Amino acid sequence: xNVCLAPRPVIFDLDGTLIDSVxxxxxxxxxxxxLHNIRPLTLDQVRGFVGGGVDLLWQKISGATGLPREAHRxxxxxxxxxxxxxxxxxxxxxxxxxxxxVLADRGYPLGICTNKPLGPTQKVLDHFGIAQLFRVxxxxxxxxxxxxxxxxLRAAFAALGADSEQPRGVYVGDSEFDEECARNTGVxxxxxxxxxxxxxxxxxxxxxxxxxxxxxxxxxxxxxxIA
Length: 227
What we know:
Strand content: 5-15%
Shape: globular
Binding site for Mg(2+): 13, 15, 174
CATH topology of the largest domain: Rossmann fold
Protein name: Phosphoglycolate phosphatase
Number of helices: 9
Keywords: Carbohydrate metabolism, Hydrolase, Magnesium, Metal-binding
Structural class: alpha/beta
Strand order of the largest sheet: 5-4-1-6-7-8
Radius of gyration: 18 Å
Number of domains: 2
Organism: Paracoccus kondratievae
Helix content: 40-55%
CATH class of the largest domain: Alpha Beta
CATH superfamily of the largest domain: HAD superfamily/HAD-like
InterPro entries: HAD-like_hydrolase_sf, HAD-like_sf, HAD-SF_hydro_IA, HAD_2, HAD_sf, PGP-like_dom2, PGPase_prok
């Protein structure tokens, strides 16, 4: 007797995976630095600091600029007032909307697991009109843990009906944080190569790598078949 299995959950990172948000992050960072008479950072510098969440972002910025450690909380608060609704310079990567639509139409439960705080995450998903495609959204402040700890990704899979301890599904991301999180969770990892990673593709563990979201639905089908 043939058994028809429901499509496996597919969970996405956000920054550097679905969206290029560094221009907005860069603008917000430099707005804060100007208040402290610190020379602005370049776009590439800020891009290199993104991925571990806002707290780690500002730890790296302070290390690069010499800002005092005791100012950290105020710097983060000042940044967040600007970053919460920053969407003007952010762009979806090409073919993201179409790929998400194909996966949703094929019955794949979709989710987000990002180190971006939940408020800005929801703002940007609403801004691009794709929030309704995701049944669960886990932000960097949704749990005490952040990626690469597996807890946020496990929580996202559990919310989509998977076993939280041994989930069967696929994670799509762009960075070393995402690669390690997928490995820690025990799920196949699809690597988007146009994001913010610093490590060469061939040195990263992944089920498949891609640079165009038009190819993603087929890659998801192949990865989900072995998940």
